[in-house]
TrEMBL record:
This is Maleylpyruvate isomerase family mycothiol-dependent enzyme. It comes from Nocardioides humilatus. SUPFAM superfamilies: DinB/YfiT-like putative metalloenzymes, SCP-like. The lineage of its organism: Bacteria, Bacillati, Actinomycetota, Actinomycetes, Propionibacteriales. Residues 1-33 are annotated as: Disordered. Keywords: Isomerase, Pyruvate.
Length: 261
């Protein structure tokens, strides 16, 4: 359990996520203390780690390849910021009564990433700070029953899913930057959560029996199958389509996995 309240700082900028009196909205914000990990606190901590690391990235490093094929570190950093911006504007639309999707279109999303990726280190850092703060403010005001669209006429998301989805974006893409933050650095609750989530996502693709040695947990993919063992972070990293199974041991050759969402 992550201790304390949902109040935290994003690299020197105070962000207060006050607790709601309405139980449903409090649960949506991850503010109900029942022994589970508090998603809002986990997200804020992940965001702080990412923004602190970003402060140490040089202009030259931003132009170098990331772990994602075809994307430089600048592309990844731009995407992380635009994702926060998209969630913030969509959540704001649920409050103002003027629904707006996260992205205007796939083409607009891709064009925005390309444009932002070419910005300077200072511009990208400032945009990430601003977008993270705006999203933190919208999460404070979020209503559990609201829904948002990722694209016009596309997938509809419950607003309550935003914290979880953003948590994934920050933790996974921080590792994608290849600047020293590894799956082994993920907090145990996140590694365990992502392992179960990714295993479920792959259930129609492969059948495996996974064993996370560090948390002594066995997870079935599909109906279960030959064994693959490693840390929760390394298993999850492989399941989300990264790497080639580094750190894993398997009773048979690892199967080829398709791209992950």
């Amino acid at each position: 359990m992550l201790a304390g309240t949902a109040n935290d700082q994003l690299v020197g900028h105070p962000v207060s996520l006050t607790r709601a009196t309405d139980t449903a909205d409090s649960e949506a914000r991850g503010e109900v203390d029942d022994g589970r990990v508090n998603p809002v606190e986990a997200l804020l901590e992940a965001t702080t780690r990412y923004l602190t690391a970003l402060d140490g990235v040089t202009e030259e490093q931003l132009r170098e390849p990331s772990q994602l094929p075809g994307w430089t570190r600048g592309h990844v950093v731009a995407h992380i910021a635009l994702n926060a911006h998209g969630f913030a504007r969509a959540l704001r639309g649920t409050r103002t009564g003027e629904p707006i999707p996260m992205y205007d279109s796939p083409e607009a999303r891709n064009a925005d990433i390309e444009e932002r990726a070419s910005g300077s280190r200072d511009e990208l850092a400032a945009f990430n700070q601003m977008a993270s703060l705006r999203l933190a403010g919208e999460l404070r005001l979020m209503k559990a029953l609201a829904t948002i669209e990722r694209l016009p006429g596309g997938v509809v998301l419950d607003a309550a899913q935003v914290v979880e989805l953003r948590w994934r974006e920050v933790e996974i893409h921080h590792a994608d930057l290849d600047i020293g933050y590894l799956p082994s650095h993920w907090p145990t609750p996140f590694a365990a959560y992502l392992l179960e989530t990714a295993a479920d996502d792959r259930s129609q693709e492969v059948s495996l029996t996974l064993h996370a040695r560090d948390i002594d947990k066995t997870v079935l993919v599909g109906k279960g199958g030959h064994g693959v063992a490693g840390s929760a972070g390394d298993l999850a990293w492989w399941l989300v389509g990264r790497g080639s199974g580094e750190g894993l041991t398997s009773t048979r050759p690892l199967p080829e996995l398709g791209s992950w969402k």
